[in-house]
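ESCALATION

Customer reports they have been waiting on this structure for their group meeting. Please prioritize. Original submission:
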Amino acid sequence: MDPNLMKLLLSSFLALLLLSVPCSSQLSADFYSFSCPNAELLVRDTVRSASDFDPTIPGKLLRLFFHDCLVQGCDGSVLIQGNGTERSDPANKSLGAFFVVETAKRVLEVVCPGTVTCADILVLAARDAVELTGGPSVQVPLGRRDGLVSIAANVRPNMVDTTFSVDKLADRFASIGLSIDDLVVLSGSSHCDTFGERFQQSSNGSWVPIDTTMDQGYAKQVAKRCSIGTSATTFDNDASTPMLFDNQYYINLLANQSLLHSDSVLVGDSRTISKVEEFAQSQDAFFTSWAESFSKLSTAGVKTGDEGEIRFACQSVNG
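Update from on-call: job pushed to the front of the queue and completed.
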């Protein structure tokens, strides 16, 4: 047989073989190294540009990532628009930065069409948001597929409630393969209606602190801001360094300056207080644990191989 013909047949056979093999049944850090080598760089540039324009974007991306992974795993289902979707549920009404993920997807569809999933873009965007605000660099495995289902009714049973005790928090995290140490690491802006049980609203609409475990000076600051705003008024868990990713949150916890009941209980439980103290004393220890816990959460309930799809647009399923 002609050697050139042999080479042609062999190359055609190998091409067909590659097409017949699923993308991957496992996640890997170099998943796009051949199919879209600039994927991570393009996502990072998109996050950086959006954050330069609006410094609240990093925090919003991190919350978006959490809300996605807690419901049906990290499959980008929270990004889907429409009545009755996760995104439409009242518990997700305060989420933002969807446009950052969608912008990155549009860029990647030009460079590497039909290759990079929205689920992976969201994980990368959250990872980059942390690093761009002073947090640790984290290598995350990639290869998630986009989910086909997004149902509002799935949100409340899977979301962490701000009134949860440590036992309930631990059970919720355990259900997605995370430990009680991961719980402390990943606890972390809040809205006035998410910590209302720690205050009482008077007849003139002002807020009065009733939880005596809160630092009273801090409680009065919160009450003043929420009294002049609405239930959607935001208040940073970390008012000292709200635009930086650091260990200040844990320092605030020890000073009884936490907004949420689900945060304050971490100080009063023997299973969690030691980690709170460790992270308050050492930012390096917090960063090391953060990298591990973030990576673990990013693999919760993922879809790989033939599961799900690669969406053409993040706000809707294909077809």
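Sent to customer with the following note: Confidence is low (pLDDT under 50) at residues 5-25, 189-198, 227-235.
Escalation resolved.
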